[in-house]
Input
Amino acid sequence: MRILIIEDEVDLASALRRALEKFGIACDLASDGRDGLYQAQTVGYDALILDLMLPGLDGRALLRQLRERKRTPVLVLTARDALRDKVDLLNGGADDYLTKPFAIEELLARLGSLIRRAAQEPRPTLEVGTVRIDSVARTVTREGVPVALTPKEYALVEYLALHRGEVVSHSRIYEHLYDDREDTLSNVVDVYICNVRRKLGRDFVRTRRGEGYVVDA
Ligand code: CA
Output
């Protein structure tokens, strides 16, 4: 999963990034509305976290322009508590909102729910053969037995499972697992696929030569 945080309060943005990275979620930051809009339009993010009061271009205008082209799920951070504002936000293209201050657990839960909805996956538990993925607890079992995955391995398994039945290219996996600061070797995806097969079975992910990887629907 890869998220863009558009927030000009640098301390809050970095704290959010640190918290999300612990769960294997790759995060990019933008502290200005114009930069944020550009990044959101050019990178295939799984979701955006958007502050409303931003320099350059405010959050509402950003959302309006983004919605002309992209359906990326957007969670708005708002300092306001007025019902009218919330209604306007949801009508203006936001998928959900959180009023500051908020607990990181709530942010994670709402993000997870937005991403599942975007993947048309209403249930928090995904099943692929004998593998069960609990996207709330972020745990995986195989034939009922817990499997220890690193946060990045979990992120890969969840991403493939949310898109099961689709051939997912190497570069798409890379784009969704790494942020713009990570200068990782390009074979890292193959290494993770290999680890996941070792832990969840060879047949969990199939290779489509020259196209990418697929988890059976
Ligand atoms: Ca702000």
Summary: The longest strand covers residues 2-6.
